[in-house]
Design brief:
The structure is a single chain. By secondary structure, the protein is mainly α. The chain has a single domain, classed as MetI-like fold. The chain has helices spanning 3-18, 21-54, 60-69, 75-86, 101-137, 142-152, 154-169, 173-179, 189-199, 202-231. Helix 7 (154-169) packs antiparallel against helix 10 (202-231). The longest helix is centred in the middle third of the chain and has 37 residues, at 101-137.
């Protein structure tokens, strides 16, 4: 490793260990946006996925196919659509949300929602096959069955939510478009890494990279632990 790269890594480690104010402000905003987006996606996606799993209606197969396909939504396309909605000429323009953290939360929530709903549908549907006769014999209403199955599969569903958080934390395209990467306002870890790398500020970019990778690893470790707990 060349001296320049070694110095960049050393400086990055120094920024993290010293609690650099700029670095941790970016980290805090990133976590705040991603956690709020995941919470919104979970509140909508988990019950939606469970309802689709339990209910049979015309076109259900098509809904499932579309939902699964939307798991691969291109982030830049989502960012563009949210930008058009929130721009001055868009239907939500008067709200003034463009280039704010709220716009980033909306974009991330739209990206995560299909992932949460599609995976929740599959998990709840598998559980429904196992408990359908029991719940039907007990006279459980659809809402009661949904609540019961969501609770029964809670460990697996928490893993789904954590996967959604990992997806949100690593997102750059959509939040760059709707947030504008404004210093101190909408700059997240991923957008800051892209900017600082282009500017040649490797210590800050590497420091943010360290934290981002550590966050993703921690989320995956927690998901694995929950999976083992569910299996036990």
């Amino acid at each position: 490793m060349s001296n320049d790269l070694w110095q960049a890594f050393s400086a990055a480690a120094g920024l993290v260990s010293a609690g650099d104010a700029k670095l941790f402000a970016i980290i805090f905003l990133s976590l705040q946006v991603s956690l709020l987006a995941v919470a919104i996606a979970a509140l909508i996606g988990l019950p939606l996925g469970a309802l689709i799993a339990l209910r049979h209606f015309p076109g259900r197969s098509g809904v499932v196919v579309v939902l699964n396909a939307m798991m691969g939504l291109p982030p830049v396309v989502v960012g563009l659509l949210v930008y058009l909605l929130l721009s001055r000429a868009g239907p939500l323009g008067p709200l003034g949300l463009l280039f704010t953290p709220a716009a980033m939360v909306i974009a991330q929530a739209i990206l995560i929602l299909p992932i949460v709903a599609a995976l929740a549908r599959q998990i709840v549907e598998d559980s429904w096959r196992e408990y359908r006769d029991l719940l039907s014999s007990l006279g459980a209403r659809p809402a009661q069955a949904v609540a019961t199955l969501l609770w029964d599969t809670r460990f697996a569903l928490v893993t789904v939510v954590l996967a959604g958080f990992g997806r949100a934390a690593a997102e750059v395209g959509a939040v760059m478009i709707v947030g504008g990467n404004i210093d101190g306002v909408t700059r997240t870890m991923t957008t800051a890494i892209a900017l600082e790398t282009s500017k040649g500020d490797l210590p800050l970019a590497l420091g943010l990279g360290f934290v981002l990778v550590a966050t993703i690893l921690a989320v995956n470790a927690l998901a694995a632990a929950l999976k083992r707990a569910a299996e036990r």
